[in-house]
Amino acid sequence: MPSVTLGDAHGIAVLDFGSFLDGSARDDVARAMVDSFKRVGFVYLVNHGIPKDKIRAMFDWSKRFFAQPMEVKQQAPHPPSGTHHRGYSAPGVEKVVQHIYDKDALQEVRAKALDVKESFECGWEESKSMPNIWLPDGTLSGFKEACLDFYWVGMVIKLELILPWGGSVPVQELLDEKITRIDAHSDFGSITLLLQDDVGGLEIEDPNNPGQFLVRPSLSSFPSGASPLTWTRTRLPLQSRAPS
Fold it and tell me: Per the confidence metrics, is the pTM higher than 0.90?
């Protein structure tokens, strides 16, 4: 039987997840995923089941949404609450901080560099605790439907992934720490699926070589990051995603 490990991308295993989905090598894929999570906290998955045309179509919808005038995007505003993660967040609204709990220290970090990212978040349409926030009907028609369709495509893969282990930012301003785009952080959820376009941006610090960063973008694979510190009794450590 062919190996489920197809290669190595800068220290991160490239795995054939199709062998897990079709049942031909579920245990081998599971072991390889956990091994890569233990070493670097990430794994590249190919043959993951999400068609390329759906990925490209969703990136197209994303470009169309963010190309809208600010006053249009603000018609689906992210609530001021830090617990309702839905809707549109404009540049400068959010600032990622990690393990800083002193109020004065938080203010200092947030004032140091403006976070210039913008984002749109959506999820399960029937959620009562965190309802989606959409543009008004008739504005960017088809966007809502495309988001919900892609949400369920990703949800199917997410449920499968639980089973194995249970470009416009000025570079100099980033280097000078005048602005940021999602500072280094560890995710709160169990699994993060991140699809990247050809611009990329995700960086993963190599836990064995601090200061060196991994991951290059690819439409045919996605980096999958594990956040199971508690679930696995620290067997799989948290890893930091660097600025995107």
Answer: no
